[in-house]
Every structure is written in C-alpha cells, then in structure tokens.
Specification:
419 residues; alpha/beta; Aconitase, domain 3; 2 domains; 15 helices; globular; binds 3-isopropylmalic acid; binds iron/sulfur cluster; 3-isopropylmalate dehydratase activity; 4Fe-4S
C-alpha cells in the first residue's frame, strides 16, 4: 500500500498512539497535559471521584489555576477555590492559583504545551496551544474527570482545513483582523470538528502572540484545534520555558485536506464582529461612529504585551473619552510586568483607564465589568454572544487592540488608521 501523506493532526495522533492513524479513526490517545480552572475544575474533580478515582494519572501533567472568578467574587467562587486547593494539595498538583493570570496564556508561558503533544483543557479556548504546535482542544468537565483518572481520552482523529495566509499587514491591521475575517468568511460552524492549520508566509513571519490570537479563535469557527506548524519562532519561544529538541512537524504536501483556503492580507482592513455572532464580521468603516459605553482590552485572545503596546501606540499622549469606561487587563503576570516596565500601565491610568490585575475580567460576564441593558461594549476578546458580557439586552463588538484603543479615545467605534 502506498504510504499516503499525513496532516499534522494525523502525525501527532499516530506518534502518540504508536501506530499509523488517519482522519476518521477513533482512538484512545494518551494525554500529555490537562488544564483545569476555577469554573470547570470543581465538576471535573467531582467526576474523577465519582469514577472511583483516588490518585490522578500524573500530577505533573495536571495544570491548575484560577482566572475566571478571581479574586473570589462570591462565596460560591471562594468555595470552588477551596475545593481545588485541597485537591491540589492532596494530589501533589502544582496549583498556580490566582497568581499567574488567564489559563491559556499561563499554560504557554510556563512551557506546559509544545509541538507534537496532545493537550486538553476544560475550556473551549484550549485550542490556543496550537500556536506552539500542540494538538490542543477543549473538553467538558466530565471528560476531564476521565482524563484526570486515566490520562487518556477517546478522540476521532479530525480532518484538517489548511489556511494558507500570504502578504504583509498594513499599519494598524493584524492577526485579530485576519482571524475575524476568516471566521466571517467560513462561518461559525465552517470548521466544525476540523483541525485548522495556519500556514503560509504571513504565519511564518508572525511572532507567537499573533499566532496565539489565531489559534485561540479556531473554536469560533467550530475547529477542534488550531495548529501552527512549529518553526524557529516556536522553538525560540519554548527554549527558555522547557527543554526542547527541535524536530520537523508539518503536513505533507500529499496529505488529504478537507479543504484548503488561501488568504492574502495585503489589502485587509480592520474588522469588527458585530452583535451577536462572532461570524457576523464587517469592515470597521461600516460600523464607525457606533456609540460605546465600555471598551475592554484584555483576555486570552488579545491581552498580551504586544496588544497593549499597540493600544498604547494608538493612544499616544491623548486621553480616553470620559463618556465611557475603559478596562485594561493584561492576560498574565508576565504580560503585566512587561507592560508595567515599559511604562504603559502608567500611560493607561493617566489616560483614564481602569487597569486590573490579570484575570478573565468581563470577557464572559462572569465577574466584574458587566454591561447593562442597552449598553454597548467593544472588546478585544473572542465572543460576542448575547449576554456574554452582562445584560442580554446589551451588545458586544469584537475587534483588535488597535481598534479598541482608537474607539476608547473617541467614545464611538473608530477606524484605528484614522486617529
Ligand atoms: C468558563 C469556560 C467553561 C468558558 C469556555 O469554555 O470557554 C470560558 O472560558 C469562555 O471563554 O466562555
Ligand atoms: S479570557 Fe475569556 S475566552 Fe479566555 S479563558 Fe477567560 S473567559 Fe474564556
């Protein structure tokens, strides 16, 4: 039989399962790392015990942290934290607790996900670790209970959609505009259960933060994973975070793809996802002038130093509009420190923003920063579903940090190329 080419996803599953597997095969695959946070962790732990679990499969492979409801914003949240701290202590799991920031950012920063690994998290944006060449996917708390006990999980090896991206971004246009435009094009269910691969010269020239933004939002088109083939950028990023021995991991040219799409970013303009769907994407010019009550710059999608630096560059020495609330939340302690040391936190505070310590913040309306009925928020995060950031009668617009900063200066949705 001819040896057929394979996709990255097929290669990862073949290596980890110890035999050649193909898209469509159902396999029980070993798990290299499993992440739980303060919202979904308690149910996963409960399931683990209900399944008769006593010791987790490998405490070193379990990543625990709190980010959605920190500092505890209710007695229930405090109780969840207590339960998880107790579990970590009993099981010998290192608990990052509330010290480090948003789960996905922290997993990558701590080098807990890398090329060729199968990583799961009980959170839908776990696909972000694909930026580091992992096959990473979000799973439910019940599946996570199973993983904690057995260190393995059933998967149907996904087919792959390859997105080849070429061209150079224009000023104030970047990865967030690209991923919004791709999602607008393919639709919220356009990549359902597919591994989405990001390839091409634009990706090769992109640093890790941008790659994270792309992989993070793979789930917003239904993707099971969002993978960037590891290259020197990946290995350089991982070098200071874990032991690395670079190796080749890319799809073969004769691999079978479910679909191959090409994009050119040369003429890409700033994009905005308008209420209430992530795939309802328009050019910023179409919604420019829309009144806003709040701007949120942060989240696992766009809360990194590079995003905050872009926002600060747009801001310059101006102030934010006094007619709206501006919330800035770095995605992690590291990102916070970089931003602080660059003097940008001072600039944001001076300009009128409220800067919070690393956490999910208003991203999913779980804790603070909620919007009221009839209010509109523009957010650098990844979801704008009805009620996502508070009132179901509110509206959430998604955009880049540059568009967010420009809009925060004027108080209305604003093209960042024009301020
Ligand atoms: C709370 C958690 C389960 C949820 C997710 O899975 O994504 C959240 O992080 C989100 O972004 O909606
Ligand atoms: S920042 Fe938002 S998208 Fe990311 S994990 Fe937190 S709630 Fe989910």
């Amino acid at each position: 039989m001819n040896a057929m080419g394979a996709t990255i996803a097929e290669k990862i599953f073949s290596t980890r399962c110890g035999r050649p597997v193909h898209a469509g095969d159902v396999v029980m695959a070993p798990i290299d790392a499993a992440m739980i946070h303060d919202i979904t962790g308690p149910l996963a732990i409960q399931t683990f015990y209900q399944m008769g679990g006593t010791r987790v499969f490998d405490p070193k492979k379990v990543i625990m942290l709190f980010d959605h409801q920190i500092p505890a914003d209710s007695i229930a949240a405090a109780g969840n934290h207590q339960l998880m701290r107790k579990f970590a202590a009993e099981q010998g799991i290192h608990n990052y607790d509330l010290h480090e920031g948003v789960c996905h950012q922290v997993v990558l920063e701590k080098g807990r996900a890398g090329p060729g690994e199968i990583v799961v998290g009980s959170d839908s944006h776990t696909c972000m670790y694909g930026a580091a060449g992992a096959f990473a996917t979000g799973i439910g708390s019940t599946d996570m209970g199973f993983v904690l006990k057995f260190g393995a999980l059933y998967f149907r090896v996904p087919e792959t959609i390859r997105m080849t991206i070429d061209g150079a971004f224009q000023r104030r246009v970047g990865p967030k505009d690209l991923i919004l435009s791709i999602i607008g094009d393919i639709g919220a269910d356009g990549a359902t259960y597919k591994a989405v691969e990001f390839a091409g010269s634009t990706i090769r020239g992109m640093e890790m933060p941008g790659r994270m933004t792309l992989s993070n939002m793979a789930i917003e088109m239904g993707g099971k994973a969002g993978i960037v083939p590891p290259d020197q950028v990946t290995w350089d990023y991982l070098k200071s975070r874990r032991q690395v021995t670079p190796f080749e991991l890319d799809s073969d040219e004769d691999a079978t793809f479910a679909d191959q799409r090409r994009y050119d970013v040369t003429n890409l303009v700033p994009k905005v996802a308008v209420p209430h769907n992530v795939d309802h994407v328009v050019d910023v010019t179409e919604v420019a002038g829309t009144h806003l009550d709040q701007v949120f710059i942060g989240s696992c999608t766009n809360g990194r130093f590079e995003d905050l630096a872009e926002a600060a560059a747009v801001l310059g020495d101006r102030n934010f509009s006094e007619d709206l609330r501006v919330l800035v939340i770095p995605a992690s302690r590291d990102e916070y420190l970089k931003t602080l040391r660059a003097g940008l936190i001072e600039r944001f505070v001076e300009a009128g923003a409220m800067v919070e310590a690393p956490c999910c913040g208003p991203c999913m309306g779980g804790s603070f920063g909620l919007i009221g009925p009839g209010e509109a928020s523009l957010s650098t995060s990844n979801r704008n579903f009805r009620g996502r950031q508070g009132s179901a009668e509110g509206s959430v617009y998604l955009a880049s940090a540059a568009t967010a900063a420009a809009s925060a200066i004027t108080g209305v949705i604003t093209d960042p190329r024009e301020v």
